[in-house]
Write a structure and sequence with these properties.
The chain has about 350 residues and is an alpha+beta fold. The protein is built from eight helices and 16 strands. The longest helix has 19 residues, at about 290-310.
C-alpha cells in the first residue's frame, strides 16, 4: 500500500493502482469518457485530468498510477477545464443516441453544468449504413473515444473496427470500410455495449428516445450454452416484452461480455409460432393441444413400446442446449438409469 493525498485527505491505495480507481474507492468521482475497466489505460479524451503537485501539466487519472506521497486535486480550476472539454465534445456531437441508449456525454454535461456547444463543425461526417440487421452506427453521435475499436482489439482479439478519416471527418468504420458481416466481427455487440454515447446501437431500437431508466431489468441466466452468462432482460414496462438484452461488468462468469445469440437472439420468447402448450399427434396424423399429463403418458408409452420390441439401445436421448447443467444431468440419469441406454447427447456435453 502507498499513502497519498486526495483533495486534502490522507488516503492509501495498492501500489500501481490507477488513480481513477483509487479515487472512486475513496468516494471521489472523476469523470471519464474514453476509459473502460476492460481496456488498457488510454488517456485519450482527457476528461479525467487532475492536478498533481509537481507535475508540469494536468494528468489523466485513467492512465496515471498512484505513487507514494502523491498530492492530487480533483476540484478547483481543473473543473473548469473539464467543463470546457465537455463543451468542445458537445460541439461535435450533433445527434442524440439513435437507439435510446444511455449517453454518458450528456449525463456528464449535466453533472458539470456544461453549456450549449461553443462551435459547430463545418459539415456532418459521412453517413454509414451497414447491411447487417443487428447493429447500426451514427458518426454524428460519435466522439471518437475509440472504446469500441479498443474493445474489438483487446477483448475480442480481432480487427473488426478502425478509425478512418482525419479531423472533423474522422469516424469509426468496420475495417477497410467493409460491412460488419465481411470483417472478423462476430456481431457480439461488445462494441455497442462500451460505446459512451450510443453512436453504435441496436438497429431494432433505431429512432426511439426511450431513456434506459424507463425499462425494467430482470436478471437471469442465458440458456444458449452451458457457460451460464448472466444477463439483464430489459422489459417494456407496459407490455413486459423484452426490448433488448444487456449485461454488467460485475456479472460472472462473462464479466458483461456476450455472444451474438446471448445479446440478440431473444425474439423467440415472444414469437407467435412458439409452442405454449404440449401437442400430441392424433389418429388423423395432426398435432393437437393436450395436457402435460397426457403428453408425458403418451411419450412414456411410446418409449416402452420401442424398448419392448427392439431393446433399450434402440432409444436415444437428445438434450436441449438451453437446459442448465443440472437439467442435463437429470436427462442422462433418466437415459442411463431409467431406460438403460448410454445414447445421450447434448451440444453442452463434454
Amino acid at each position: 500500500m502507498v499513502a497519498f493525498t486526495l483533495d486534502g485527505r490522507p488516503v492509501s491505495a495498492p501500489e500501481g493502482e490507477l488513480l481513477v480507481h483509487a479515487a472512486a474507492r475513496h468516494g471521489t468521482f472523476i469523470p471519464t469518457l474514453c476509459h473502460d475497466d476492460k481496456l488498457d489505460p488510454y488517456g485519450g479524451c482527457r476528461m479525467c485530468v487532475v492536478d498533481v503537485e509537481g507535475a508540469p501539466r494536468p494528468l489523466p487519472a485513467c492512465a496515471t498510477r498512484v505513487a507514494e506521497g502523491m498530492v492530487v486535486s480533483t476540484n478547483g480550476p481543473i473543473t473548469e477545464f473539464q467543463r470546457t472539454l465537455t463543451e468542445m465534445l458537445l460541439s461535435e456531437h450533433l445527434n442524440a443516441s439513435p437507439g435510446g441508449r444511455p449517453n454518458e456525454l450528456i449525463d456528464l454535461a449535466n453533472e458539470l453544468g456544461a453549456d450549449a456547444p461553443l462551435m459547430l463543425p463545418d459539415a456532418k461526417r459521412a453517413e454509414y449504413d451497414d447491411r447487417n440487421k443487428l447493429m447500426g452506427y451514427d458518426p454524428d453521435a460519435c466522439i471518437l473515444c475509440a472504446r469500441c475499436v479498443r474493445y474489438t482489439q483487446e477483448v475480442m482479439q480481432c480487427s473488426a473496427l478502425s478509425l478512418e478519416g482525419r479531423g472533423g471527418h474522422a469516424r469509426i468504420v468496420p475495417t477497410w470500410e467493409l460491412s460488419w458481416l465481411d470483417t472478423e466481427c462476430e456481431l457480439c455487440g461488445g462494441c455497442l455495449s462500451v460505446c459512451p454515447t450510443g453512436a453504435i446501437y441496436e438497429k431494432f431500437e433505431e429512432g426511439t428516445s426511450r431513456p434506459e431508466r424507463q425499462l425494467e431489468q430482470v436478471r437471469t441466466t442465458c440458456t444458449f450454452c452451458g457457460v451460464g452468462c448472466q444477463i439483464d432482460l430489459n422489459l417494456d414496462p407496459q407490455t413486459k416484452h423484452i426490448v433488448k438484452v444487456t449485461s454488467k461488468d460485475e456479472y460472472l462468469p462473462n464479466e458483461g461480455n456476450l455472444c451474438v445469440k446471448g445479446r440478440f437472439a431473444f425474439n423467440f420468447v415472444h414469437h407467435p409460432d412458439r409452442l405454449e402448450e404440449p401437442l400430441v399427434r392424433g389418429d388423423d396424423g395432426e398435432l393437437h393441444p393436450t395436457t402435460w399429463e397426457h403428453a408425458l403418458e403418451t411419450a412414456a408409452t411410446g418409449l416402452q413400446k420401442v424398448i419392448a420390441e427392439h431393446g433399450s439401445q434402440a432409444v436415444g436421448f437428445l438434450s436441449s442446449a438451453r437446459l442448465t447443467n443440472e437439467e442435463n444431468y437429470l436427462i442422462q440419469k433418466l437415459a442411463r438409469t431409467g431406460v438403460g441406454t448410454n445414447s445421450v447427447h447434448s451440444c453442452e456435453s463434454t
